[in-house]
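Lecture 7 notes: from sequence to structure.

We start with a single chain of 182 residues. Read the sequence below before looking at the structure.
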Amino acid sequence: MQSDPSFMLLSPLGLIPILPSASLKYRQEKVTMSNWRSRRWVLGLVVFAVTAASYAQWSNPAEDVPAYHPSAPLRIGSLPAILSGAKLTGENFRYPWQIHVYEQAAKISSVIYQLPCNCRCDRALGHTSLRSCFEGLHGTECSTCAKEGFYAYQQTKLGKTPEQIRAAIARHEYESIDLDRQ
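Now the structure, written as tokens:
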């Protein structure tokens, strides 16, 4: 009988030999489990790397422009209506600026159709331009949309083109708008 400790098991009855095939099977299971753990670790690192590489924080903000249309719509009538009239009442319209911005947005509908909205509602709500913010209640809830709406109206009245207004919005010039003074 061998006295190699790797093949012997200590029991109350004394040393019991373990067959080499049983020991080998145990070692194979241990190696397989170790491989599985290392593969799992590597898979976790790969998933982390892909997530980090694709995360918006790593993208160039100058290249990340919110959604807008480069030209005026062919027919305004085919677009959803901007809220107006009796729809500008209720708990969402508590402040005068909320009603005022919707009234102004309706007057420059084709201009705001060509402008992006920097609150990123294109990602969160599927909006396609600043105009989309005023087709529902989002323009009442979001100060960025409201400020951009007021800014677009002011600049349109000054004779600026949608391209010039879009460039100014990209420079965040709308942030100087005080909603309480509108």
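The mean pLDDT is 80. Keep this in mind for problem set 3.
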